[in-house]
Specification:
By secondary structure, the protein is mostly helical. It has helices at residues 6-21, 25-38, 43-55, 59-72, 77-89, 93-106, 110-116. TPR repeats lie at residues 77-110. InterPro entries: TPR-like_helical_dom_sf (IPR011990), TPR_rpt (IPR019734).
Length: 120
Amino acid sequence: MPERTPETHVVHYRAAEQLLAAQDPRGAVKLLDGVIAAHPENTAARLLRARAFFAAAQLRSAELEFTIVLEREPDNAYAHFALARTYERQSRPDLARRHFRLAAALDPNPEYLERAHFDT
């Protein structure tokens, strides 16, 4: 097996982005597993893996990764929004609403504001 280098991890991260865009989330997860094993502190890789888990309907794994991202970056509006969508797909509306609202409070993105339902 070839030696893994930081450059290899960058290539795997970029390839995982492409796989996710090509609707191969499981392939993306496989590449990101090695990146995260070597660099567990890499929040960008964790966020990408969370997105891949979500796309693959591995919702518990997505929830875990989004939660780790938010522990490190509590002001990450996208991570709050994505975690809310994860909770929504798990039929956990109270948690979903909380994170939709946090996302909208952090970033007035129209999609975040619409999903926050501040009027209810």
